[in-house]
Amino acid sequence: MNWELIFLFISPVLCSLPIAFFWVKEPGSERARKLPLLSVFGLFISFVIAIHILLKYPDGTYTIPWLPEYNINFVFIFDYLSKYMGALTAFIAFMIGIYGLEYMKHDYRLGWYWFFFNMFTASMLLVVYSDNLLMLLIGWEGLGLASWGLIGHWFRDDDELAYVGIIGRKIGPLKMYWPPSYGGWRAISTIRVGDMPMFFAVAAIYALTGNLNISQIHWGMLFSKIGAAGTVFLMLCFLMGPFTKSAQLPFSEWLMTAMTGPTTVSALLHSATMVAAGTYLFIRMSWYIHPWALHSVPGVAVLYFFVMLLGLISAFYGALVAIGCLERKVLLAASTMSSLGLMFGCAAASYWFGKLALVIAFWYLLTHAFAKATLFLVAGHLIHATHTRFCCGDLSLAKKMKTGLVATIIATVALGGLPPLTAYWVKAGMDGVMHHLVEMVGSTPLYLLILTSLLYSAFLAKFLSLNFWKGCKCSSLHLHEERLMPFAYACVVSMVFLLLYKILSGTDPLVEKHLLEFGLEKDSLMVGLGVTATYLFALVVPRISVLSPIGTFLGDRMYLPALNDFIVPSIGWAISKLIEYTHKAIDWFCHFGLPDFMLSISRRIRSIQVGYLRVYMKIALAFVMLTIFVSMMGWL
Amino acid sequence: MMVLLLSALVSLILIVFGAVCSLKDLRLSLAASILALIIVLVSSITTQLFPYVLLVVAIGILTVFSMSIRENQISGVDYSLVALIALITAYIAYTNDISFILAAFVIASVPTYALVFVSTDGAKPHVDVALKYIVFMVLATVLFIIGTLFLAYSNSSGNTMLYTLGFVMLILGLGMEVGCAPMHEWVPDVFSAADPLPLSVVASITKIVPFVAAYKIILLTALPQLSKLTIFVAFIAVISMFTGNIGALTAKETGRILAYSTVANMGYVIATLAIVTSKNYLYLAFAGALLQLIVNAFGKASFFASIKTNGCSRPLMYLLALSFIGLPPLMGFWSKFFILTSLVGAGLIWLAFLLIVNSAISIPYYLRIARNLAGETFPGKVTAIALISSVAMLITVLPPNWFVSLAKAFFGGV
C-alpha cells in the first residue's frame, strides 16, 4: 500500500475535521480560531506530496484493488498532465489557504468553510490523479458538493458585499442581483444537469468496453463500434459534465453568480481547480483518445469541430461580458469563462493539429491558473480594503497597496499575451494552431481567437486601470497591515516567471522549443503588437461613456440570466402545474370517478332483486330462450 | 369396485337408519350420519382419489355439524340428507357412466329442497324463499338432463345441431343450478332470507357435484364441434364474475355479500370449462376448478355457520377471507393460480386478465365480510368448523402438485 498516495487525499480532510467539529461546539471562540492553521497544514502535506510526485515518480499507473471482479479499481495515473496539474492544484490550494487564514479571520462559520475548502482540494486532487472514470466521478461529485457549500458559505445573505449585481435592480421580470444562497443553488443545479448525462455516458462506456481506465480503453475501437451518431451522442453526453463544470455556453451563468462566495473560494474554484477540471478532463481524454489518429473513424471530426466552435464562441462571449463588467470579481469570472473557452478550442484543434495542441492548451491552463488566482486574490484584498465589490481606486490606493499593484501588473501583462511574457508564447502557439486549421476548417476559429485575445488584454488593462489608476476615489480605506494576503499572491504570481523560464529554456520534454518558434513568427508578433496596443489603450481609457449602453448590455451578460432565472424555471413551473393537474385527475378518478361508476353499476346489478319469483323467472327464461335461439341460428 | 359398492350400500343403510332414529334420539342420528361418511372414507383409502374423498368427507362432516348447531323442524333427518349429499359427492368421482352421473346430479340437488324450508327456534318455515329456490332448481335440473340426453344422442348419431343445443342447455342448466349470472336471481334472495345453517350446505358442498358432472358429461360426449362452443362458456363466466363482484361491493348484509361472492366464484369455476378442449391444460384447469369449489365449500360453510352465531373468531374469519381473496400460500391462491395458468397456457389471456381484475375488485368486500363476522374467540361448534376450514386452507403451504395428479385420476373411471 502506498501510504504517501493515501495521505495526499486524506490529510486535508483529516486536518479540517478538528475545526469542523470544534466550531459546532464553541463557535467563534478564541481557541477555535486557531484551528484553521491545522487545516492549512493538511494542505501543506498534500502540497509536499504533490511536489514529490512531480519530481520523483516515474510515469505510469498505480492500482489499488476496489472491485477487481468487475475490472474497476482505484487507478492512479502519473503522467505529464497529472503531475503538473496535481502540483499546481496543491500549490494554489496551499497558497490560498494561507491567504484565507487572514482573509477569513473574522468569519462566523469557519468550521463549515475549512471543511469544505479542504474537502474541495482533496476532491480536485482525486480528479487530477485518477485514471479510472468511476473513481474520478467520486472526486467530481466531491467538487460539486464542496462548491455548493463554499459558494453559499455566507448563507444568511445579510452582507451586501457578498451579492452579485446591483441590489434592487430589475429588468422586466428578472432580478439582476443574486444573494449567496441563490448562487450556491445555481451552481449545484447547473452542474447536476451536466452530471446526469455524464453518469450515463460512463455507464455506457463501461458496458461497451468493460473497462473504465481512460488510458487503457481502446477508444478508436469503441468509436468504430458505435458509429458516427453513437460516438457524437456518447461523447456529448460525457462532455456535458465538463461543459457545465467549465461554464461553457449556455451553462455559464452559475460561474458569474458563484462570485457570491468568499474571494478565496472564487480564487480556488475559478482559476485553477473546479472550472479547470472540465477542461483538464477533456485534455486528459483527448490525450488518450488520440483524435489525430482517428481520421478514419466517422463522427470524431464532427465532435471535435463542435467542441472547438463551442469553446471559441464561449471565449468570445466571456470576453465581451468581461468588457462590460464593472464588478471586480464578476469581471474576472467572465474572463475565466473566456479562458476556459480558449482551452477547449485549442484542445479540440488537436484533431487536426496533433498532440502539441493539447500541450499548448494545457500550458495555457497553467498560465491562466497562476495569473487568474493572483488577480482574484488581489481583488479580494481590494474588496477587503475598499469595502465595495465594484471597481474603484486611484493612485493613492496604488501607493498603499504596492504589492497588490505589482502583482496585478505582472498578472495582467503575463496573462494578456503581451510579448515577451508567458501568455504571449502560449497564445502564439494557439495562433499557430488556428492558422494551421485555416486550410481545413476555414478561418473563423483564427478570427475568433484573435478577437478574443484583443478583448482579453483590454479588459485586463481595464481591471488594472479602474482599480489602481483611473477609478473613482475610494471614500474609505481599511488597510489593516495585512501580511499573509500579499505574501500569498506574491508567491502565486511569481510562478508565471517559472513557466516563462521553462518556455524560453526549452527544457520541458513536450514543449521543447515549439512555443518559442511559434512566438517568433511574423503573424504572432503582429497579434502580440495588436494586443499590446489594445492593452495600453484600455489602460489609458478604461471607460468610454459614449458606449455605456452597450457596456450595460454586455455587463448584463446579454440577458443570459433569463435562461437560468426565467426560462428554465418557467418550464419547471409548467411541468409542476401539469403534474398538479394530473394528480388532481388521478385523485378525482380514484376518489370519485371509479367508485361512483362502480357504485352505479353495483346498484343496477342489485336492482333486479325485486323479490318476485315471476320477475326472476321471466329474466331466466328469457335468457334461456334467447341463448337457444341464437345457438340455433348458428351463431355459436 | 366391490368394496366401494358394498360400503356405499352400508353407508346408505346407516343414513336411512339415522333418519329413522331422529324420532328417538338426535345424537344417534348424528352418529349414524358421521359413521356413514367415515365408512365412505375408509372404503376409498386404497384408491387414487382418496385425498379428494378426504376433503369431501371433511366438508360433509363440517356441514352435518353445522346443521346440528340449532334444532329445526326436521332435525335428525337433515343430518342424513347432508350425509347423502356428501356421499354422492364422493362417489361421483369414481364413475364414468352417464346415467349414474345424472342420478348423482339429482341426488345431490333434491335434498337441499327440503333443507331450504327449515327454520330454527320455532319460527315459521321459509316457504316463500324455498319456492323460489325449488322453481329454479327444477328448471335447472330439467335443462341439465335434457342437455345431457341431447349430447349423448348426438354423440352417437353425429348430429352437430343437436349437439350444440345439448351443450347450450347443459351449460344453462349448470349455470342455473350453481347460480351463474344472468340466471342468478334466486341466489341473493335465498342467501339473505333463508336460515343460515342450511345455507352452509346449499352454498358449499352442493356446488361440487354439478361441475364434476358437467365435466364428465362433456368429456364423455365430446364432438369436434365442441371447440366452437366454448366461447359461450367464457361469455357466461365473464358476466358472472363481474355481476358477482360488482354486486357484492355495495351489498350490506353479510348473507347477500356471500350470495354475490358465490356468483363470482361460480364464474371463476365455469371459466375453466372454456378450455375443456385443450389437451395440455385440461387437467390443470379441472384441478383449479375443483380446488376453487373446495375453497368455496369450506369458506361458505364457515361463514354461514358464523352468521348464525353472530360472529366467530377474528383471526379465523380474516384467514378465510384472505383465502377467498387469493393470498399465497392459502388454498384460495392455488386454485386461482391453477385456473389462471391454464387459461394463459390455453391462449385465453384476455379471460385470465379479466379474472385478475375481478380478484382485485373482490378484495374490499371479502374484508368487509371478515370485519362483519369478526368477534370473540369462544369454544363451540362454529369455532371448530371455522378452525378446521382454516387448517384446510393452510394445507397448501407446500405447493399442491398432488392435486393436479388427483385431477387426472378423475377421468380414469372405475
Please characterize this protein's 3D structure.
- The complex is a heterodimer of chains A (636) and B (414).
- Chain A has 636 residues and is mainly α.
- Chain A has two domains: 3-559, no CATH class; 570-632.
- Chain A is 73% helix and 3% strand.
- Chain A is built from 24 helices and four strands.
- Chain A has helices at residues 3-25, 36-56, 80-103, 110-129, 133-151, 180-209, 219-245, 253-257, 263-272, 274-289, 300-324, 328-348, 350-353, 355-386, 395-400, 402-416, 422-441, 444-468, 484-505, 514-519, 522-540, 548-555, 561-607, 613-632; strands at 60-67, 72-78, 170-171, 174-175.
- In chain A, the strands form two sheets. A two-stranded antiparallel sheet of chain A has the order 1-2. Chain A has a two-stranded antiparallel ribbon with strand order 3-4.
- In chain A, helix 11 (300-324) packs parallel to helix 18 (444-468).
- The longest helix of chain A has 47 residues, at 561-607.
- The radius of gyration of chain A is 30 Å and the shape is globular.
- Chain B is an all-alpha fold.
- Chain B has one domain (2-409).
- Helices cover 76% and strands 1% of the residues of chain B.
- Chain B is built from 18 helices and two strands.
- Chain B has helices spanning 2-21, 26-43, 50-67, 77-91, 98-117, 127-157, 160-178, 186-193, 196-202, 208-220, 226-250, 254-271, 282-308, 314-325, 331-345, 349-373, 381-394, 401-409; strands at residues 312-313, 374-375.
- In chain B, strands 1-2 form a two-stranded parallel ribbon.
- In chain B, helix 1 (2-21) runs antiparallel to helix 4 (77-91), helix 3 packs antiparallel against helix 4 and helix 14 (314-325) runs antiparallel to helix 16.
- The radius of gyration of chain B is 20 Å and the shape is globular.
- The model of chain B has no long low-confidence stretch (mean pLDDT 91).
